[in-house]
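Support case: user asked for a sample of complex input and structure output to validate their parser. Sending the pair below.
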Amino acid sequence: MSALLEVKNLKVHFPVKAGMFSRVHETVKAVDDVSFSIAPGETLGLVGESGCGKTTLGRAIVRLVEPTAGEISLDGEDILKMTGSALRARRRKFQMIFQDPYGSLNPRMTVEQIVGEALDIHRLTDSKSARQKRIFELLKDVGLDPVYAQRYPHEFSGGQRQRIGIARALAVEPKLIICDEPVSALDVSVQAQIINLLGDLQQEHGIAYLFIAHDLAVVEHISRRVMVMYLGKIVEMSEAKEIIREPQHPYTQALISAVPEVDPESKRKRIVLPGDVPSPINPPGGCPFHPRCPIAEARCRTEVPALREISKEHWAACHFAGNKIEQSNRAGFQNV
Amino acid sequence: MWSFLFKRLLHMIPLLLGVSLLTFLLMAMAPGDYFTALSQNPQISPETIANLKAKFHLGQPWYVQYFYWLKNILHGEFGYSMAYKIPATALIFERLWNTFLLSFFAMIIAWGIAIPLGIWAAVKKDSWADRGCSLVAFVGLSVPDVLLALLALWFAAATGWFPVGGAQSPIHDLLTPMQQFWDCAYHLILPALVLAAADLAGIMRRMRSCLLDTLRAEYVTAARARGLGEGWVIYKHALRNAINPLLTIFGYSLAALLSGAFIVENIMAWPGLGRLTIEAFFAKDSYLVVDCVVMATALLVVGNFIADLMLAWSDPRIRLK
Amino acid sequence: MALLEIKNLKMDFGAGADALRAVDGVSLTIGASETVCLVGESGCGKSVTALSIARLVATPPANYVGGEILLNGQDTLKMSNGELQKIRGGVVSYVFQDPGASLNPVFRIGNQIKESLKLHRPLTRPSATLSPAGGEGRGEGVRVLKNVITDYDTEVIRLLKLVGIPAPESRIRNYPFEMSGGMQQRVMIAMALASEPKLLVADEPTTALDVTIQAQILDLLSELKRRLGMAILLITHNLGIVGDMADRVAVMYAGQIVELSPARELLRRPLHPYTKALINSVPKLAGGASRLSAIPGNVPRIGNFPPGCRFAPRCPIAKPECSEKIPELLEVEPGRFVRCPFWK
Amino acid sequence: MESTPPNLNPIALSPWQIFWQRLKRRRIAMIGGVILIGLYLISLFAGFVAPYTHDRLDRDRFFHPPTRPQLEGFHLVVPRYEQQPGNFIYHAVQGDTQPIRFFVHGEKYKLFGLIPASIHLFGTGDDKYPVYLLGTDQFGRDVFSRLLYGSQISLSIGVIGILLSFTFGLIIGGISGYFSGATDTVIMRLCELIMSVPALYLIISLRATFPPSMTSAQIYAMIIVILSFIGWAGMARVIRGMTLSLREQQFILAARALGQSDFKIIVRHILPNTFSYVIVAATLSVPYYILGEVVLSFLGVGIQEPSASWGLMLNAAQNTEYLKNYPWLLAPGAAIFVTVLAFNFLGDGLRDAADTKSI
């Protein structure tokens, strides 16, 4: 299987300006040595907590953020080496859907202008009527009535705006769409509509997704494979079903157990991790997870665990991968 | 916090250097100089003029003059006023003091009235009191300083209750220190009131909107939810936060105040920097103009620095980061 | 007598012709030491209902049209400002969604907690610590006897320890911005507990937090409830939280309660079509199903609630008559109320 | 699955239409707007509306008090005023009147500075019965007529100054914000420099670089140049700030992800979203430009006699003796006040109408 997207040793570091004379003091390692690939038509899920670098990773792939090092090849072309108009032309192949349904549409443009802009940039239609026909088609594709093409974004609800954003991305017929938390700002009853829509579109057009979210259940539902990110690093990667059934990394185990469960019968024991999500400015040495890890040992403080293949297609970055966290310790609870 | 303040302090130096350089350049670009007028005076010999020019490096290119000027400043010398025929230093500082006095009292009056009024308007939002305040503020914002000063002058002339201009009475030097003090205050009050009135409306409206903003904040609801009294919620929780944005606009208000003072000084014959600037301008006394502009800027920059200081004191997020 | 009894609460935003009904006939009771979840999507009126208990919604724009909110038997809608201030914090405390915004940024957290203590539990001289026995309500019913404290700082530190803040002795001098979101929410909870309320209203307390931090806070809430035994009204949009926390659940849609039921039964066997659809539209871990059963259409906005049954336009089993008459909330099984005549 | 918006307005409204609807509901803003339209119309037709030209001297009537028109039957009439010998005190002569006529022939003027004309809106047609609605000044010139001619300078300087400095501010601020880096640093330091000098001190220094005597057209241009030089900095700073925050908006990221060029992103996405702010700021800043001219002319370094401008006319009122005896010389002050008030009314309403997320 030849990969559509191949990311190798990607690093995105930001300098943090601090101190009196604005010298570079520290770097945020937002994305630190990340490698993965996505096959055509596949959905890869990316899950992690705020500040773990998942959004930066998504933006780096579409070159909205400049990576510090690494390789990103799409369809065999290294897009990190491209600049200017060559890059702009290549942008047809990969698109992005954003989180905020309110901020992601220009409030001063009509739906038709928003979707049409995508067509105009890449000159995808050759006549006015073809352009309009295509816009109507796209709106129908995402479940919007083309009657409303002349409306402005402020007249639509969150879910409808998200559909407009999807139509804009679809307009250029991309092979890959980076979905950056596309449903987390939506109401529960609307979330499912968008998730289903994304699934339908994938079936129809064979688009590959990198689906970023903090909600493990959503990611697991939509993805074939899932990556778990913690402090700029991939800590576990596997098939979706496998990762839920047999999580290897303790962080993944805690994450799974923390998902609130609707089913009252399933009494999964909640693993409560102590402490806060650390700031990526000064990540802990050794395994980045060790200060919060219930099974950490001395070795974890010094030695960075490599992402290794535990079983077929199941990767984890933990010295003690596979060890189960048994005890649910009461986080930070002190007897008073 | 200290590094923040130190940084701000260091920031002032290039700013003042830049301003002086800019003004110096502008003055150098000005057609003619003091000596153009002087040389037309048949009573002054060309030698005298040449001597004077040499003494003040006036034959040199402007940047050389600038360096001499700068060197003198570092020695506390503000050059020589051609028109007044005295060293500028004493003159400048006397006028600076007067401008400072005028602006300072105007500021005290303006903020002293505007802040309570703004709070009152915000607390009584949409009441007749609020509407009344906002109407008065509109009028206040729209009366130009020039007109206000002229009206004050007219008022003083018509009633005789206030002196028509000037900073002290002619017999000032003959008075006892106590009388001198009252004489100064008597001369100060009308210009300060005029200046304050021009500034007041803006501050009041800002205060009102800042407080209304903070009253919408979630921590205000949270404070109410804890059972704190409405007065406590407004005056402790909301007001304490509303002050921070107000301090950041202090700089703008100060800049407006200094420009207002410029006008008031010239109309009401208050011997401050603004009046000196215009006098020096007409006399083509270019060093003096540069001195005045730099001094006025320094006043503003120092004022802003003090505002930053107060902001850092008031807002822990700035103090501790 | 229930601790809290909301009877047929009706609230508008605006008045006269512009009035938009935000809460339309909500009735809910909470017994002492009971945990009730109020579940619903944005704009369904769950937050304003909760805020109304201590009358924290500004009037205007809000306008109470009808109903009663009986807290310890007294109607908070009829209370004077003075009485309200006593029950706020004193009987009912609040924890809000965004802890960063609900802590005052310019005061140290210790002082903010102390403020609550001073108000609701003023210092008693050690000689007077012998408290009169067993008085729940003293006279007016809104006054509740509190545990006696002799030193504010000690009590603040005790509270911070109670909510699991490490090294509280040094933390009391922190400003809110120096803490993480999870720690800030703990401080908010400590502040809410400072006055020893009978009812804790938590309005989406974990929505702004990360998953692992959310687990910590939920864990903390259940533990505190176990120890302190206050009643909790938990507002959330997340049905998953319900199963973990609640004794009973009220599901709100477009300003009305559509289903009210014991929590486990509601999750196991939802009766109202909206509840059913809501549960089915949430992806479940290892759920398998390739397609979620989505609810068509959009969440109605305030002022645009459809006539008749408000869920009818999105309801899979709607009949023509559903759009004509608003159905009643009826008890169909013991303890289970549904606002749908076709629940079977 | 079709998802049609059920809550949609029957009529599609653009953000501008919503803005206009909101504005229409603010009475005070509409009042301000109407006053301004009136003022600018009058100023445009100043030669026609004014009964006299700005430099007509009436050597017999220095400090003539405002003429009081009276109603006689169905006619508005003006009395003849007689001067007390030896001083500037005038008395209306009872019974000696002339009717005010409309569209009378009078002095020649050029409409819009181009079309020669001699019809005036009103007048008596008889120089013995002058209509000095606001009296005359120390040279016997009609204050009302000069006020109208002066408005051409004072009002136009505001608008042209704003256009110039906001254009610069918008371009420079937009560039500075979008490209950041060294360009940004240099531009922002320059703005800071300009803004840290109290405005009037800077204005005077700038004035010094021009020759003291120039033609009136040159002076007019000079004032605009000076005011714009100072005005662009504040605008550039604000636009830069807005650009910086807009640049991180997701719809800008989306446009970049689509491959839109930088230029088109600035023109199509960033600038249109600053417009409502710019319009509000411009409306609220016009008064500063008008006042700038007033102050310069008032101090004697702006518009020169015999041209008329509001500041220059106020200059005469500076004399306390004049002020005490001939208070009508303050009329330009009232004109400035009304104009500035109208701008503030309109600007405030615009700000309220624009102040929401939905635009």
